[in-house]
Amino acid sequence: MSVLLRLHGVRPAEVSARCSATAELMACLHVLAEPGHHPDRGTWVRRALADLPGPAAAECDAFAPLWARFRTRLMLPLTPEGSGDLEAELAQIAELDLGVFIQMAGMAIFGLRQNFGWPLDDAASAQEFVRACGERSTRRGVLAGELVADPERFRGRLLGLLHVTSETFFGVLWRRLRPALERSAERVGASLRTEPLPLVVGSLSPNAVIDVAEHTVEFSKLQQAAVTVRGRGLVLVPSHFGQPHLLVKDEKLKNWPQQPPVVVQYPAEQHGPRGADTLDKIRERMLVLTDAGRLEICRHLINEQCTTTELAWRTGMTQPQVSRHLRRLREVGLVVSARHGRTVQHRIQTSRLYGIGYDLVSGIVG
Q: Angle at CA 261, nearest 5°, toward 260 and 266?
C-alpha cells in the first residue's frame, strides 16, 4: 500500500518548509504512547514520564488515540505560514471553529481514513460514532463519548495537557531541537528554489518512488491514498522524534472555506548533503551487503539502472525476492527508485557505496 502525492501544477508559492513546535510535541507524545515501536527512546521515555505529574500522565494515556497510530491534524500546521512557536500554535487550536475542531479530533479518535462520515452535531449520528469508536477499543470509545458530550471541555483538557508537557519536558527539549530542525527546513527550502518539486519531496524518504514526468511521489505506507496537492498547498515539516516515520496528512474538512494544506512531516536526518554517517548506519549498510542476493543486485546496478523485471531475469531470483532486497537497500540509502513512464528504474547510490570505507574510518578515528 502507498500514498501517492500528485504535484502537477503546484506553484512554488504553494509549497513551504518550516518548523512546528506542536508537530514535534505530537511526535514526542507518539513515542510516549507507542514506546515499543521506538526502543531507542527508552531512556527518554522513562525520564519524560517521571517529569510529568501523575494527573498529567493519566491524561496522556487517556488522549493517546490522538497521537498513537492515526495522528491528529490538530497538531500539524493549520496554515502554510507561521512562526512555529508553541504558544502561537496552541492559540490557533484554541481559536479554531468548534465544528472543525470536532472533525479533526473525531477523525483521530476513530483512527481510520475510511468511513469517517458522521455529522457529530446530530445526536443519533454522534452516538453511532461513539459506538464505532468503542468497537475499535474501549479507550477510543470513552474519548469519543467525552468529545461528543462536551467538546469545549474536551478542548480545554487537551490544551491544558499540552501546556503541562511544555512546562515539564518539552519546553527545554524544543529549545535544544529547534536550531537543527530550522537548518533542515532551510535546506529543503533552498532545494525547492533550484530543483523539481518531485525530486525534493521524494528526497524526504529513502522508500519514495519519484516520477518527474508525471509529477508524482509515492511513499510506501500502511494505507492507500492518492492526494492532489494543487490548490491545497503543501507544508514540509522536519522532525527529530518523528524518526523513522514519514507522515502524510491530507484530511478534507466540512465547513472550512479554505482547506488546510497537505502536510508531510519527515525525519530531519533524512534530507541534506551527505556527511560522514554514524557508525550504526555504516554497520547497518555493511550487514545489508552481507546478503549474497543483495550484493548481486548491487553488482548489476553499479553501471546502469535496471527494472525489477530485468534484475529478476539477470539474477535468477523471483520478482518478489528482488523487490524485498531492493526495499532493504532503499531503507539503508544505497538504492534509489524512480518511475520513468510505465517502468520503475532502480539505481545505486555509488557515492554512499564508496563512502562506507571512508565513513567507517572517520567514525572510528573521530
A: 130
**Residue 273 grid cell:** 548533503
In single-letter form, the type of residue at position 85 comes to D
Alpha-helical runs (H) found in 264-349: 279-288, 292-301, 308-315, 319-331
Dump the DSSP string for 17-83. Answer: E---HHHHHHHHHHHHH-GGG-GGGHHHHHHHHHHS-HHHHHHHHHTGGGTSSS--GGGS-SSS---
The x, y and z cell numbers of residue 1, run together, are 500500500
Provide the pLDDT confidence category of residue 2 given band limits of 50, 70 and 90.
Answer: confident
Q: What gap in Å lies between CA 213 and CA 322, rounded to an integer?
A: 25
**CA-to-CA separations, 55 to 45, 51, 314, in angstroms, rounded:** 17, 12, 61
Helix (H) or strand (E) segment spanning residue 160: helix 151-165
Beta bridge partners of 338: 210, 345
Please give the average per-residue pLDDT across 349-362, as a whole number.
Answer: 69
Whether residue 82 contacts residue 88, with contact meaning beta carbons closer than 8 Å, is answered with yes
